[in-house]
Design brief:
about 200 residues; alpha/beta; Rossmann fold; 7-stranded mixed sheet; two-stranded antiparallel sheet; 7 helices; 11 strands; INH-QAR; Class_I_gatase-like
């Protein structure tokens, strides 16, 4: 996946994106950037560069606008209530298709998969999403091969993650894929991510 330049990962943010869909992968990837000899650049961006209000009220001021993030190697597309509006926005779907043509790897979290499907990017491919959104995904594109068990599905140039916290697992997988499993383990230790649910 090398293009002769530093790896650049962009996390797209938008109104009503789910908080952990955004900050979970960002935390993993930013921790990777701090540890890695590859020194990847990890940034957030919104459509116009303006701040956004996430689903539960957290406000984020992104680093860039969509017009200022050329050269991405990975685009992370979160889920959340806002995906329902974006999946019906033809201009936005055209933008997503252009990203597919320019960005080597797209990675969705949770209901971000609905937008990828609406853009036609999951047709005939295996994918996952939040457990409560499988019917929506199937309605958008019945040809998507739904994986209702996986935390994430890596189908080469597109990765989809299940709901919310699964974005952390997917981001660790990205680190392993883009650098190494050993570095991914270092990141996991750095963020002290060792799931052991109390209930």
């Amino acid at each position: 996946m090398s293009t002769g330049s530093a790896l650049r990962v962009g996390v797209f943010v938008f109104d009503d994106a789910e908080e952990l869909d955004v900050v979970g992968p960002f935390e993993v990837l930013a921790a990777w950037a701090a540890l890695s000899d590859l020194r990847p650049e990890v940034l957030t961006f919104s459509a116009d560069g303006a701040g956004v209000r996430l689903a539960k009220g957290l406000r984020i001021v992104p680093d860039r606008s969509a017009d200022d993030v050329a050269g991405l190697h990975v685009l992370v597309y979160p889920g959340g209530r806002g995906t329902r509006t974006l999946s019906a926005d033809s201009a936005h779907l055209d933008w997503v298709r252009r990203q597919r043509a320019e960005v080597p790897l797209l990675a969705s979290v949770c209901t971000g998969a609905l937008v990828l499907a609406a853009a036609g990017l999951l047709a005939g491919r295996p994918a996952t999403t939040h457990w409560g959104a499988f019917d929506e995904l199937a309605a958008i594109d019945p040809s998507v091969m739904l994986d209702t068990e996986a935390r994430f599905v890596d189908d080469g140039d597109v990765i989809t993650a299940a709901g919310v916290s699964a974005g952390i697992d997917m981001a660790l997988h990205l680190v392993a894929r883009l650098e190494s499993a050993d570095v991914a383990r270092q990141v996991r230790r750095a963020i002290q991510y060792d799931p052991d649910p109390p209930v």
